[in-house]
């Protein structure tokens, strides 16, 4: 029987439709990592026990994270004939109330209620019109968002390939294989101006073109989900809430770079069981559905994807170190050139991209490069996945278009710092990123402007500090992290990060000297001769910290001997 | 790709470089110094120290010259204020974790090692107490950069020393984490016995598995020691000897690979042996024996004066008196009563003069030498098939093979640097097939590992050839053009179907078939074999020759046949005519054409018939036909598992021994003469790939010792023979070149420039990297019938002495000798698994632990002994005993008893 993607799509849609307009209540429990941490499994158990005790018929299933991490565990419920209602902060007791108050009595508990959705793409079969229910997406933390790659997160069941297909999933792959040439796809990427989301913001199309022209097979695609930055959790979020989107992006990239007969690897740090398990399941389901392996979708395009676990080392997120890691070696960066597109894993042409970068590709193929280029700013196109943590009221993951200001994200979406406190400092871009002062709040989020200000957007982590934060101590923590996580290869980085952390340690004990402070700045410069960004950027915390909070650093100097 | 030179400028100097070279390589070739710490010419670029940064016109920023390629028109600046600043800052960081009390001291030049430090620098912070002092790369770089102050606090790591092995000491408090040792261990040795542990600033070198080096699979090749720029990894022996007074480049005398070594001499003693990165055979690779096996040359047990036996009494004598006595005594025997035992450990010149003494002065051709792992007579098959028994290709080129077949050779132990080429080939994707009854290290890496019953190797090869012929996988074009008598081979394979061979050898038919297909499908393929494991005569070498011809693997780069000769100069001993029927340069006595020139040169005493060989000599002594013997050697261990040699020697009427040690031979000698060791003499060795290489004296003769050629010439002169007026070994080589066509173009003048592979037919001939190209030396390659018949596997238990990597270590570390025995034998002898037993050969007993398992077949035991014990046994004892003899992988009858 010939391969019939339309039939698969129709089946998936029909099943999804049945879910939206169910005969028995459908309950989704947020089981992203934050949902898990907040007690998701207990909530599911409590729900099931409560339903059983009452003899009620209802299906419970897992979904990923909606991004409103502060509100986990988030439970959404579709009752027959009703729109989908979302409840936050659900505990096992809350679960009991959901059953007794909403399912039995039809009265949604006010204190738990977050909002409702009224359209099929967000998983609702019934419009909100006339119900008087508030729209979930009009909440401040969602109103600001432009959800491209998080659109399915928290809405669908990430372990069910049908849910993804029902939301247009694998449509881009079908379109690409049967209607587009690899060149077409790279052209669309070129038009979209998609820049790599791994930190370096390198134009994706250019990278793809290098690989397209490289000899093969084999050619390899490496999806980097190593994500070791403190304060960043968007890669994990995507992998655990919508793994198929990333997977489709990798397969599409394989097609676009003429890597047929080659292979993709998805790297996740060992120990991150949730993303690992979800991706593992997704890969298996994709093979079963004919989206991977020999003759994908009945075409002559063949591509494989495998999950690969990296050791617990921060530097193994660096692209060449990751390749060493794949080859079974110690994760230490290689020198460049040769670049991965010419000499990658096992010396074969390879491309390595961040999870987010791959995740954008299905949408760009589906809706076109021009559509994507219409979002964001002049040089930073598309959306930013900001991970808000620290001293904010509503920590979470917010996908906003580039150009939105830090203030909007922090104050509108995340609710600002707790009452009675003032915002003092922002730490962005992970431990190799830098600090921004409160005065930088009106800076738009983008790739280049933030770098110029001495910080960077990088992988998307934004840690907010209020006036209780000791910047010198925070700098010490970051420097300590950088020293611990240096891979130990390049002399300047291995030794410099340690000296820097030691100098900061003395500063926090008010034992620093002016000479040392200057030495730390020199070390920062010296480290720039290292092979990889770990050395290049390790000066950022102290440099930007000193730039904006010089007085605090000066206060860490030894008191002059009284004369 | 064009081989055009790349033209670039470094510091304004126009230079030429090869395409693909890095800037630092080009600069080094041009004699321009760029400071570095993590780079090494024999290692792949690494780019960690960032010390070698330069400015290059075509690269932005400050690229590291160790991984930036040269380009046409490139302008490189090796020093500028910006570069200096980076280097100074990196060096300051580096010294913040390395003791540098002396490094940055302005008055270090005035300071002696015993002076009291005026600056109160802690003793552990001083260079003068570092074993690497005066030969430290960090010192060089610091002085070049002229750093005289380290602004950062120094942190001593406080790590414990690692000294739990016989050869190498680690003091990782001195380590600068350049990774050269780790990379050398991985890239060159393939052992990965050391690795980095921890991360960040705690990153340090340690054994890979956390325990001792031996436990991590260290082969003690010593590469890590030689590449270490500082004093972190140093030799235990002569650790504090300091910089050498002189370094002498010479050829290793331990096995037939012939690696190039530098002997470091201090105050007249060899204190160290280090690798030579420009060595053409080894390219800087080395092994434990070459690296650490030099200590015996300074043993106090060396023979230092001539000794004469009068009655039962020994007395010292002068050389004059001794040679008088030998000349007088030898003159009293008829030529056929004298036997000359040449030495595969001595130089070509020594062996040449010995056989000339026999043939030209004494009139006897009773001469032979003993090679334990590849006896000359076992290579007769190769000789008949190809026209020469020598290895056909370069051992270094084995790395380019796409398939490698290793037969009965524990290469990684017996010829470690040869084994490395096989491992490198495997790394590059070659198929490795190992045919061996033993458990060898290469077996673990093999695509097909054929474990046959001892003595059935020929049958297995026959089975493989049968498969190749039956399936039409043979190289028909090659055979049609270059070989003959294929039908003789074909008709001999009738009984050797894979199924039949399975019954004979215990190797499954499926494995035989698969191995045959692998070998036929992956060319070029090389075949390396040892012919000394069992007494299969020359059948093994004949079968190997057949297989090579059948698959078209002769006269082709990356292919070839390699008899793994046991000793450093086995090939040379054959070349010099030290076989009963041979003459120098491959000539034979029985061929009138090749005999005649020697007759003209040496006179009419030259016998026209072959003499008797080693085995016949043993019998001849017993029967009273052989009465006198002259034996030369250099720390040679003659195998004597059955005690036949000792018995023969004791029956001899007159025995002259020229040796470095008296050893067990001395007991039977009438004259004991002190020989110079390889470190004390000039001469040449011919390695297994026919490469003639110089041996250069690093130190003067110990005591009154003399090289064999000198003493033998004197004896000949005293017997009235002419043509023995040599004053230097170069004259002997000149004579060899005149008489032996294959050595015609070889002279010391040329050898000083590097080794030459024979045939080298004239002064303008570069030598031959490959034999049998475009045709075989004998014309057409001759297929020989495979002759295999069930050999008598006696009731004696046969021990296959073997070294297995898994317990490679030393007894002192708690490892044990291990004897694997079949359960049937164990039951019969009444021993159980884990019992302490004694293992007895004719040469003595050693204790061991019995392991009853399925690997040893009935009637055979497998003996595994820690390598280092044997190395220690060989080098540190003056008289290598049972351990060293067992180290040679031969079958011996042994007796196992419960201890």
Fold blueprint:
The complex is a heterodimer of chains A (563) and B (899).
Chain A: H1 5-20, E1 26-30, H2 33-37, H3 40-54, E2 59-63, E3 75-78, E4 84-87, H4 92-104, E5 113-117, H5 140-143, H6 161-166, H7 171-179, H8 182-192, H9 204-213, E6 220-225, H10 234-241, H11 243-256, E7 263-269, H12 273-288, E8 304-310, H13 319-326, E9 350-354, H14 355-367, H15 369-373, E10 383-390, E11 396-401, H16 406-413, E12 423-428, E13 434-437, H17 448-452, E14 461-466, H18 471-485, H19 491-508, H20 514-527, H21 533-537, H22 540-548, H23 550-554
Parallel strand pairs in A: 1-2, 6-7, 6-9, 7-8, 10-14
Antiparallel strand pairs in A: 1-3, 3-4, 4-5, 10-11, 12-13, 12-14
Helix pairs in contact in A: 3-4, 7-11, 7-14, 8-9, 10-11, 10-12, 11-14, 18-19, 19-20
Chain B: E1 6-10, E2 13-17, H1 23-29, E3 55-56, E4 75-77, H2 81-95, H3 137-145, E5 168-170, H4 180-188, E6 194-197, E7 204-207, H5 223-227, E8 233-235, E9 246-251, E10 260-266, E11 269-275, H6 288-292, E12 307-310, E13 313-316, H7 319-330, E14 338-341, H8 348-362, E15 367-368, H9 380-386, E16 403-407, H10 411-414, H11 416-427, E17 431-435, H12 441-445, E18 448-450, H13 457-470, H14 476-482, E19 483-484, H15 486-492, H16 498-505, H17 509-521, E20 525-529, H18 539-550, E21 560-563, H19 570-575, E22 582-583, E23 587-588, H20 592-602, H21 614-622, E24 628-632, H22 644-651, E25 654-659, E26 671-674, E27 683-686, E28 691-695, H23 708-718, H24 729-739, H25 748-751, E29 756-757, E30 781-782, E31 797-802, E32 818-821, H26 823-829, E33 836-841, E34 844-852, E35 860-864, H27 867-876, H28 882-887, E36 891-898
Parallel strand pairs in B: 1-4, 14-15, 14-24, 16-17, 16-20, 17-18, 19-30, 20-21, 24-25, 25-26, 31-35, 32-34
Antiparallel strand pairs in B: 1-2, 3-4, 5-8, 6-7, 9-10, 10-11, 12-13, 12-26, 22-23, 27-28, 28-29, 31-36, 32-35, 33-34, 33-36
Helix pairs in contact in B: 7-23, 8-23, 8-24, 9-18, 13-16, 13-17, 13-18, 16-17, 21-22
């Amino acid at each position: 029987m010939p391969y019939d993607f339309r039939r698969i799509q129709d089946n998936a849609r029909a099943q999804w439709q049945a879910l939206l307009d169910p005969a028995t209540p459908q309950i989704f429990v947020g089981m992203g990592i934050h949902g898990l941490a907040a007690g998701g499994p207990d909530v599911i158990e409590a729900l099931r026990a409560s339903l059983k005790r009452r003899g009620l018929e209802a299906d419970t299933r897992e979904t990923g994270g909606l991004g409103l991490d502060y509100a986990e565990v988030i439970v959404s419920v579709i009752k027959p004939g009703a729109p989908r209602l979302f409840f936050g902060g659900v505990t096992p007791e809350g679960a009991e109330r959901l059953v007794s108050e909403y399912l039995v009595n039809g009265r949604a508990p006010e204190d738990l209620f977050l909002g409702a959705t009224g359209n099929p793409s967000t998983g609702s079969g019934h419009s909100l019109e006339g119900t008087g229910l508030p729209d979930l997406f009009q909440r401040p933390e969602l109103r600001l968002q432009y959800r491209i790659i998080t659109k399915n997160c928290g809405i669908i069941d990430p372990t069910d390939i049908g849910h993804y297909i029902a939301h247009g999933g694998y449509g881009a792959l079908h379109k690409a294989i049967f209607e587009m040439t690899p060149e077409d796809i790279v052209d669309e990427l070129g038009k979209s101006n998609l820049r790599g989301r791994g930190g370096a913001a390198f134009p994706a199309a250019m990278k793809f073109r290098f690989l397209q022209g490289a000899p093969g097979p084999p050619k390899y695609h490496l999806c980097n989900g190593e994500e070791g930055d403190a304060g960043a959790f968007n890669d994990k979020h995507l992998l655990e809430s919508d793994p198929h989107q990333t997977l489709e992006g990798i397969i599409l990239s394989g097609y676009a770079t003429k890597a047929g007969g080659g292979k993709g690897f998805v790297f996740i740090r060992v120990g991150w069981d949730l993303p690992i398990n979800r991706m593992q399941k997704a890969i298996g389901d994709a093979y079963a559905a004919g989206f991977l392996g020999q003759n994908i979708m009945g075409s002559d395009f063949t591509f494989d994807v495998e999950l690969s676990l990296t050791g617990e080392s921060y530097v193994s997120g660096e692209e060449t170190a990751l390749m060493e890691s794949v080859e079974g070696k110690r994760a230490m960066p290689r020198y460049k050139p040769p670049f991965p597109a010419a000499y990658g894993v096992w010396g074969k042409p390879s491309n390595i991209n961040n999870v987010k970068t791959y995740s954008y590709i299905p949408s760009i193929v589906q809706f076109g490069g021009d559509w994507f280029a219409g979002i964001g700013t002049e040089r930073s196109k598309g959306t930013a996945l900001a991970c808000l943590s620290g001293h904010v009221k509503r920590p979470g993951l917010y996908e906003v278009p580039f150009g939105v200001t830090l203030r909007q994200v922090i104050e509108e979406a995340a609710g600002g710092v707790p009452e009675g406190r003032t915002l003092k400092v922002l730490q962005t871009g992970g431990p190799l990123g830098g600090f921004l002062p409160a005065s930088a709040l009106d800076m738009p989020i983008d790739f280049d402007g933030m770098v110029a200000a001495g910080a960077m957007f990088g992988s998307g982590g934004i840690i907010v500090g209020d006036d209780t934060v000791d910047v010198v101590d925070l700098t010490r923590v970051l420097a300590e992290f950088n020293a611990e996580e240096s891979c130990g290869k390049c002399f300047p980085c291995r030794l410099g990060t340690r000296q820097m952390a030691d100098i900061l340690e003395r500063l926090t004990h008010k034992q620093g000297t002016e000479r040392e402070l200057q030495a730390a700045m020199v070390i920062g410069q010296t480290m720039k001769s290292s092979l990889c960004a770990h050395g290049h950027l390790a000066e950022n915390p102290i440099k930007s910290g000193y730039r904006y909070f010089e007085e605090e650093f000066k206060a860490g100097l030894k008191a002059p001997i009284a004369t | 790709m064009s081989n055009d030179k790349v033209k670039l400028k470094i510091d304004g100097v126009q230079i030429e470089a090869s395409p693909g070279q890095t800037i630092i390589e080009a600069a080094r070739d041009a004699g321009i110094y760029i400071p570095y710490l993590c780079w090494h010419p024999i290692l792949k670029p690494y780019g960690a120290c960032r010390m070698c940064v330069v400015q290059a016109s075509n690269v932005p920023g400050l690229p590291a010259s160790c991984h930036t390629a040269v380009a046409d028109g490139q302008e490189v600046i090796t020093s500028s204020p910006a570069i200096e600043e980076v280097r100074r800052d990196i060096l300051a960081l580096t010294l913040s974790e390395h003791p540098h009390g002396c490094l940055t001291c302005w008055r270090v030049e005035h300071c002696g090692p015993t002076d009291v430090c005026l600056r109160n620098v802690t003793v552990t912070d001083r260079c003068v107490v570092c074993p690497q002092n005066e030969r430290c790369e960090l010192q060089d770089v610091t002085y070049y950069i002229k750093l005289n102050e380290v602004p950062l606090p120094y942190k001593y790591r406080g790590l414990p020393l690692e000294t739990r092995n016989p050869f190498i000491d680690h003091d990782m408090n001195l380590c600068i984490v350049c990774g050269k040792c780790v990379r050398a261990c991985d890239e060159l040795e393939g052992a990965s016995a050391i690795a980095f542990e921890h991360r960040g600033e705690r990153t340090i070198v340690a054994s890979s598995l956390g325990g001792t080096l031996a436990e991590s699979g260290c082969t003690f090749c010593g590469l890590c020691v030689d590449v270490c720029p500082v004093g972190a990894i140093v030799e235990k022996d002569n650790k504090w000897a300091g910089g050498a007074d002189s370094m002498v480049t010479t050829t290793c005398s331990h096995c037939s690979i012939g690696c190039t070594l530098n002997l470091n001499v201090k105050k007249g003693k060899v204190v160290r042996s280090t690798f030579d990165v420009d060595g053409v055979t080894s390219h800087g690779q080395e092994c434990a024996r070459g690296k650490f096996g030099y200590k015996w040359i300074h043993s106090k047990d060396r023979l230092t004066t001539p000794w004469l036996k009068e009655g039962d009494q020994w007395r010292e004598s002068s050389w004059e008196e001794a040679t008088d006595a030998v000349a007088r005594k030898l003159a009293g025997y008829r030529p056929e009563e004298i036997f000359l035992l040449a030495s595969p450990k001595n130089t070509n010149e020594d062996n040449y003069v010995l056989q000339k003494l026999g043939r030209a002065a004494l009139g006897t051709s009773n001469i032979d030498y003993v090679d334990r792992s590849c006896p000359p007579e076992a290579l007769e098959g190769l000789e008949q098939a190809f026209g020469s028994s020598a290895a056909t290709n370069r051992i270094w080129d084995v790395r380019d093979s796409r398939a490698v077949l290793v037969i009965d050779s524990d290469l990684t132990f017996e010829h470690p640097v040869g084994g490395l080429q096989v491992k490198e080939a495997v790394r590059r994707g070659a198929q490795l097939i190992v045919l061996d009854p033993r458990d060898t290290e290469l077996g673990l890496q093999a695509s097909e590992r054929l474990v046959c019953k001892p003595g059935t190797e020929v049958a297995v090869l026959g089975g493989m050839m049968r498969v190749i012929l039956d399936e039409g996988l043979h190289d028909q074009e090659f055979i049609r053009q270059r070989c003959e008598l294929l039908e003789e081979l074909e008709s001999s394979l009738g009984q050797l179907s894979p199924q039949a061979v399975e019954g004979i050898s215990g190797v499954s038919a499926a494995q035989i078939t698969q191995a045959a297909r692998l070998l036929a499908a992956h060319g070029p393929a090389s075949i390396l074999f040892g012919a000394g494991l069992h007494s299969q005569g020359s059948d093994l070498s004949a079968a190997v020759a057949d297989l090579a011809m059948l698959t078209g693997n002769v006269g082709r780069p990356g292919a070839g046949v390699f008899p793994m000769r046991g000793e450093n100069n086995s090939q040379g001993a054959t070349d010099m005519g030290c076989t009963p029927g041979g003459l120098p340069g491959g000539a034979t006595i029985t061929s009138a054409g090749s005999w005649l020139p020697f007759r003209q040169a040496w006179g009419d005493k030259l016998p026209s018939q072959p003499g008797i060989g080693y085995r016949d000599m043993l019998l001849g002594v017993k029967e009273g036909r052989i009465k006198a013997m002259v034996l030369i050697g250099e720390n040679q261990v003659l195998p004597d598992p059955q005690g036949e040699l000792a018995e023969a020697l004791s029956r001899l009427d007159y025995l002259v021994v020229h040796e470095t040690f008296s050893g067990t031979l001395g007991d039977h000698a009438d004259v004991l003469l002190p020989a110079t060791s390889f470190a004390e003499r000039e001469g040449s060795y011919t390695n297994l790939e026919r490469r003639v290489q110089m041996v250069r004296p690093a130190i003067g003769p110990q005591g009154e010792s003399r090289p064999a050629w000198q003493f033998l010439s004197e004896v000949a002169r005293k017997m009235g023979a002419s043509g023995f007026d040599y004053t230097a070994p170069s004259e002997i080589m000149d004579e060899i070149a005149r008489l032996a066509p294959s050595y015609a173009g070889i002279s010391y003048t040329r050898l000083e420039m590097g080794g030459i592979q024979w045939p080298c037919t004239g002064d303008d001939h570069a030598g031959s990297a490959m034999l049998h190209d475009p045709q075989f030396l004998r014309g057409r390659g001759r297929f020989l019938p495979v002759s295999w018949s069930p050999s008598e596997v006696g009731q004696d238990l046969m021990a296959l002495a073997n070294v297995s990597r898994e317990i490679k270590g030393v007894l002192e570390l708690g490892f044990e000798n291990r004897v694997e025995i079949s359960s049937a034998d164990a039951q019969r002898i009444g021993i159980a698994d884990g019992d302490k037993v004694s293992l007895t050969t004719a040469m003595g007993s050693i204790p061991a632990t019995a392991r009853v398992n399925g690997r040893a077949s009935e009637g055979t035991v497998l003996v595994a002994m820690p390598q280092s014990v044997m190395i220690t046994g060989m080098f540190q004892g003056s008289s290598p005993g049972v351990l060293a003899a067992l180290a040679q992988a031969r079958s011996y009858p042994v007796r196992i008893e419960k201890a």
